[in-house]
Amino acid sequence: MSRSSKTRNTTNAQPDSRAAVSGHTRPRSRVYVLISWVAVVLWAAVIFYMSAHTSGQFSGEMGLISRIYEALKAWQLSVFGEGSQFIYNAAHFLEYTVFGALLTNALSCHMSLARAALCAAGLALAYGITDEIHQLFVPSRSSDPMDCVFDFLGGSTGAALVYAIAPHVAGRLGREPEA
Q1: How far is CA 23 from each of CA 15, 36, 44, 116, rounded to the nearest angstrom?
Q2: 7-16, 31-40, 125-134 — which is least confidently predicted?
Q3: In terms of Cα–Cα distance, which of 112, 101, 119 is closest to 157?
Q4: φ, ψ of residue 28 in degrees (nearest 5)
Q5: Mean pLDDT of 142-164
Q6: CA distance readout (Å), 11 to 18, 26, 110, 134
Q7: Residues 6 or more apart in contact with residue 132 via CB below 8 angstroms
Q8: pLDDT band at 9; cut points 50, 70, 90
């Protein structure tokens, strides 16, 4: 392989999120891209795991998670009263906020940050819909279309946060900021 072909191959790296904001591309390491996608898959597995369990299981069978859940339920009862769904809806929102942020970061390795944020919001909604379908098959769980609304809002919030913050963080991570 000639020296010039080696040089050409090294320029085929992925763009970073800072450069992708303006449509320019900068190389990202394959390790960074891989870790970004592994984080997305792991977080999707966390969401799936949480959906596969009932609130009764969170009430006593899951150690630290159960203790946190019980404390939050007591707080919810004291603040919002009986029948409130605040913690349930907040959990959906926060799960998908993280998911939207991770998706945006991973997608920005392959496209502009703006496009990545839009795609991440749509993918978060799509995963939220499949999550609700999954819950139809979990004993003692049901599907609620309003959950998809909180999933989409959370995913969109996570994507928007990455879109807003990534250009400022890139310079602090040793990358040159765009002009």
Answers
A1: 9, 20, 28, 12
A2: 7-16
A3: 101
A4: -125, 145
A5: 92
A6: 17, 9, 14, 42
A7: 143, 144, 145, 147, 148
A8: very low
In whole angstroms, what is the distance from residue 36 CA to residue 34 CA?
5
Q: What is the mean pLDDT of residues 78-97?
A: 86
Q: What is the pLDDT of residues 103-122, one digit of tens each?
A: 999 999 999 999 999 999 99
Rounded to two decimals, the pTM is 0.74
- How many other C-beta atoms are found inside a 10 Å radius of the C-beta of residue 67? 12
Residue 153 domain flag: yes
The count of domains in the chain is 1
The count of other CB atoms within 10 Å of the CB of residue 168 is 10
Nearest CA to 101 out of 29, 176, 148, 158 is that of 158
**Residue 177 domain flag:** no
pLDDT band at 27 (very low <50, low <70, confident <90, very high): low
87: containing domain: 3-172
Which tokens go with 7? Answer: 């040089």
Locate 67 and state its tokens. Answer: 């203790």
CA distance 133 to 147: 11
Q: What is the pLDDT of residue 141?
A: 77
* Residue 158 neighbours by CB distance under 10 Å: 27
Contacts of 136 (CB under 8 A, 6+ apart): 142, 143
